[in-house]
Amino acid sequence: MTHRPSPPESLLADHVTQQFVPAPDLVQWARETFIEDSATLHNPEHQHLNHALIGALWTNVPNGRHGRIILAQCETGAPRAMGKWAKARAEVQIEQWFGGIPDFILTFDAGYAATCSDVEWCALVEHELLHAAQERDAFGAPKFSKSTGRPKFAIRGHDVEEFTSIVRRYGAEPAHAQAFIDAAKKGPEIGRASIAHACGVCLRQVA
Ligand SMILES: [Zn+2]
Asked: How many Å lie between the centroid of ligand 1 and the Cα of residue 151?
């Protein structure tokens, strides 16, 4: 496993100013660790993400819902329906961060990322990647855009497939990387439920 990305010190030390900092190294790390065919902890479920533009952000802004802390979230890149100016403002900000509108934006709590274990970090990032899905038709076949040929992307909620993937990879059988195996030997530190309780997408769905 390549060295995992760290949030900037300036962000960790700042408890006053609300910050969002683009994390291209985090996306690069996620591709090299989970997405690409040669990835150290390759998961074929992320195949479509080879064709996705992904933007990632670190933040020091605390987030929570129903008394639970949100540590990460996956959203589509285009701002959702809002007033024309509000939407345009959000688009300008996103373009400044990423040089365009990505297919997905992943946001991570910097304080947690700086202190959690490798296994917790891998499980959290992969959990968010599993929300970054490709649309499927009524027969379960992946959908592609007729005009561009690119996959049609959408946010996926929890389903049996996702549950199985995370448990298989983090609950029981360790994968190849030595650091990962060493960490996994200590026992599953993070289960599907505990990740879901820390994820903004999942909390929105249970609410
Ligand atoms: Zn989730």
From this structure: 21
Mean pLDDT by 10 residues, the chain (207 residues): 85 91 97 93 92 97 86 92 91 96 97 89 90 91 92 80 62 43 50 65 65
CA of 20 to the centre of ligand 1 (A): 20
CB 81 within 8 A of CB 32: no
Name the residue ranges covered by the structural domains of the chain: 9-206
User: What does pTM read for this prediction?
Assistant: 0.82
Q: How far is the CA of 42 from the centre of ligand 1 (A)?
A: 20
Closest to 73 measured CA to CA, from 155, 137, 192, 134: 155
- N- to C-terminal Cα separation, the chain: 36
